[in-house]
Amino acid sequence: MGSDIDTEVVGPVGIVRIDRPEVRNAVDGPTAEQLRAAIDRLDADEDLAAIVLTGTGGTFCAGADLHAFADPARRNRLEEDLVGPMGPTRARTRLPTIAAVEGHAVAGGLELALWCDLRVVAADAVFGVFCRRVGVPLIDGGTVRLPRLVGLGVALDLVLTGRAVAAEEAQRIGLANRVVAPGQAEAAAVALATELARWPRRTLLSDLAAARAAFDRPLDEALLHEHRLGVASLEAGGADAGVSAFRAGQGRHGRG
Questions:
Q1: How does pLDDT run across 73-113, given as a tens digit for each residue?
Q2: Cβ within 8 Å of residue 231, ≥6 positions away
Q3: What is the dihedral of CA 33, 36, 38, 43, to 10 degrees?
Q4: How many Å apart are CA 23 and CA 2, to the nearest integer?
């Protein structure tokens, strides 16, 4: 059996593609394992600056593969541990992750998009808690990450109704970071990831880790956690090259 996950490295960017277009990139158990393994492998690559997650065939991901529910060898695992049913959704990467969303990102596919740090979305893309329609619960972080991203009231409107959310609304409520022409989401996400690679890596990763952790603890503790990460970055020389370049005249007056 071939892999349902395709990976590629483009310069400083690792790309992970769910490749099951015949089921709109729905994820079964084996695919979830392959997806997490692919992301773990790229995340460990010291030459990479970011990871882009997308799907083939014009669809991001239609969620869990409901056809696999009846097959013990293919159904998504439901153990209570740090391995998400959709694969990486309970893991934390070292690198920033960007979802490149074409077509539908619904049910567990929405949860995969929410797991990513940023979302680049095609203008005709659709988000939604479509699993509401068949009684399947959100179990890959949807009820946790969506309220943090768009606010509780807006999140509950999406979670409880299961309605479709177009790209324009997704951007307005903060679910989409960029909206691009149809067919251009992956290229735009790779361009954004490459832009992130311009900046001093250690400091960028430190700030990413601090921002991710901010909601996990009280404000006072989050501020001190941010401080500890930032000081560790400075002590490791994370700002040395950039500060030296600035003092030499580069990057002043807002120029990159």
A1: 999 998 988 899 999 999 999 999 999 999 999 999 999 99
A2: none
A3: -160
A4: 16
Query: What is the pLDDT, as a whole number, of residue 215?
Result: 86
Q: How far apart are CA 191 and CA 170, in angstroms?
A: 21
Burial of 200 (0-12, 13-18, 19+ CB in 10 A): middle
* pLDDT tens-digit readout, 14-62: 999 999 999 999 999 999 999 999 999 999 999 999 999 999 999 999 9
CB-CB contact of 246 with 252 (8 Å) = yes
Task: Give the pLDDT mean for 237-243.
Answer: 79
Query: Please, what sign has the CA dihedral across residues 27, 43, 50, 155?
Result: positive
CA angle 144, 59, 109 (to 5 degrees): 15
Beta bridge partners of 98: 52, 118
Q: Which residue has the tokens 């998400």?
A: 84
The strand pair at 50-55 and 97-101 is best described as parallel
Q: Give the DSSP letter of residue 134.
A: G
In degrees, rounded to 5, the angle at the alpha carbon of residue 62 between the alpha carbons of residues 196 and 86 is: 70
Question: Pairing relation of β-strands 104-106 and 97-101?
Answer: unpaired
**pTM recorded for the entire structure:** 0.90
Distance CA 186, CA 97 (A): 13
